[in-house]
Design goal:
Elements: H1 2-11, H2 17-39, H3 53-68, H4 81-88, H5 93-123, H6 126-138, H7 151-172, H8 175-191, H9 201-208, H10 214-243, H11 256-259, H12 262-273, H13 298-301, H14 320-335, H15 339-363, H16 365-381, H17 396-425, H18 435-451, H19 463-486
Helix pairs in contact: 2-5, 2-6, 3-4, 4-5, 5-6, 5-7, 5-19, 6-19, 7-8, 8-10, 9-10, 12-15, 14-15, 15-16, 16-18, 17-18, 17-19, 18-19
Length: about 475
């Protein structure tokens, strides 16, 4: 055992990228196989992985494009569909999806190596490098999405690769690396539009890097923006030809099938007081309003105790009886088969939900503007981190694994948050590396405070930054303590 540890230690060095990649791929592949075997996915014949409702909104436009020459429905930007479409040109659908999962796996392994190298570039410390490498290599928080055709895995890896390219372009003053960084951040934004503000981070760090000339810094900044300018211009042009109007992102930021159900409108009610919107979470407050998944598993449908509407959610115009009546109407909408009754009940739910939001905002402005986003931040970040891979452990071994991964996740979030705050003011944190705490902080705050929409998976792309900040924070604390003891 000691011999194996020594051998791995020799392989995991910041100047041995290929051996690091081999080890990372080994560990990520093991997680990949375990996740597929555990869930026994069978979306359709020949396909290994899982599927979700959102997956089809990325797959169907590409299938339509290949069949008829038009990208439709264009409710999603084509960033995630691009690699699937290229694979689909060569392979049948099931095999193309399998290849897409393998691509996500490989990109995840590459991200392990490059994230550790980012930590090395910031600290020049081998322990920090090895710690980031091993923790990210064994972490399941991102790897869970390697086996699903969703944007989380590729977006996460792309942001890590883009950040590394940005740092390397500073070291070497190479415009090609700045172009690579810009391409990665643009690709991430076209997979998840919430990433668009992050496009300004590479130019920002280039301009803040005082050790090179202003001319070089300006050129790096310009080259990092060229991919976005080119791709976004093409996308806007295409949208103008199709829709006859200026559409920089998509025609809608929310799926029509979501807007046409009580989920969205009751969600406005729940987010007003800072409740959880993830209706597949058995403790989510939105379930108290009878928002459910169709065909949800028996354990979830019968989960006890059932969530209740909190007393602080009431207002003068909406006492508890009124909120319970709203929940009862949602349940009636769920069950009735009469189209006319369904339409009238939906109209009532929309009207009462909008009225409630106005009432709560007027009567409880402090709670609406301050307390509710803080509650959403807690819901967004302070959970087990194993809500999908191990929602209900069945034996001691699974409980042990769940506790380990939950501790790993929560430790990363808490220590990473502390590290991000400290780094912003720490004299030894390089100014050019501010992209790491700024990106992590953006990921933590944008969903609860700006969008007020917090599915757990939205945090996944920002987890690597939190890990770097957590390891750096621990390293800084222990180094400081050691220095104090030595004096």
């Amino acid at each position: 055992m000691n011999g194996l540890v020594r051998a791995l230690s020799k392989l995991i060095q910041h100047d041995r990228p290929w051996s690091c990649l081999l080890v990372a791929l080994l560990f990520k592949s093991a997680l990949f196989v375990v996740l597929i075997m555990r869930f026994r996915y069978s979306a359709f014949p020949g396909y290994w992985g899982g599927i979700s409702h959102d997956s089809y909104s990325y797959i169907e436009p590409i299938e339509h494009l290949l069949a008829s020459g038009s990208y439709f429905p264009d409710l999603r930007m084509p960033g995630y569909g691009l690699p699937y479409g290229l694979l689909r040109l060569l392979l049948p659908q099931a095999q193309a999806l399998n290849a897409l999962l393998v691509l996500q796996l490989i990109m995840d392994a590459i991200a392990v190596v490059l994230l550790a190298r980012i930590a090395w570039m910031i600290t020049r410390n081998r322990t920090v490098f090895a710690s980031v490498f091993w923790v990210y290599a064994i972490s399941s928080f991102v790897s869970l999405y390697d086996v699903l055709p969703l944007t989380e895995s590729l977006t996460t890896s792309t942001l890590v690769i883009g950040t590394y390219a940005a740092f390397r372009s500073l070291e070497r003053s190479r415009l090609s690396l700045a172009l690579c960084a810009g391409f990665c951040f643009t690709w991430a934004a076209f997979m998840r539009p919430v990433m668009f503000p992050l496009l300004m981070l590479p130019p920002l760090i280039y301009l803040m890097h005082r050790t090179t000339s202003m001319r070089v810094r300006s050129m790096l900044a310009v080259f990092s923006l060229l991919p976005f300018i080119a791709v976004e211009s093409a996308w806007i042009g295409r949208n103008y030809m199709v829709h006859g109007t200026f559409v920089p992102i998509t025609t809608t930021l929310l799926m029509p099938d979501y807007l046409e159900t009580p989920n969205y409108h009751v969600g406005l009610v729940v987010r007003s007081f800072g409740g959880s919107l993830t209706w597949w979470d058995p403790d989510a407050e939105i379930r108290a309003f009878n928002i459910r998944d169709k065909g949800e598993p028996e354990w979830l449908a019968n989960y006890q105790p059932k969530p209740t509407i909190p007393a602080f959610a009431t207002t003068t115009d909406f006492p508890m009886d009124s909120l319970l009546a709203l929940a009862a109407n949602v349940q009636y909408w769920n069950t009735t088969q009469d189209p006319a009754q369904k339409r009238s009940t939906f109209a009532y739910i929309v009207q009462r939900s909008d009225a409630y939001v106005r009432s709560f905002k007027h009567e409880h402005p402090w709670h609406y503007h301050v307390v509710a986003p803080l509650r959403l931040l807690g819901i967004f970040t302070l959970h087990s981190g194993t809500y999908l891979d191990l929602p209900r452990p069945r034996n001691v071994a699974e409980r042990s694994v769940k506790w380990f991964y939950s501790a790993l996740y929560l430790g990363t979030m808490l220590l990473g948050s502390a590290g991000a705050i400290v780094a912003l003011f720490h004299r030894r944190w390089p100014r050019w590396a501010l992209i790491v705490p700024l990106m992590f902080g953006y990921g933590l705050l944008v969903h609860p405070f700006v969008l007020r929409f917090c599915e757990y998976r939205y945090l996944v792309p920002f987890y690597p930054g939190g890990l770097v900040m957590a390891v750096w924070f621990l390293h800084t604390v222990f180094t400081r303590q050691h220095a104090d003891q030595s004096t």
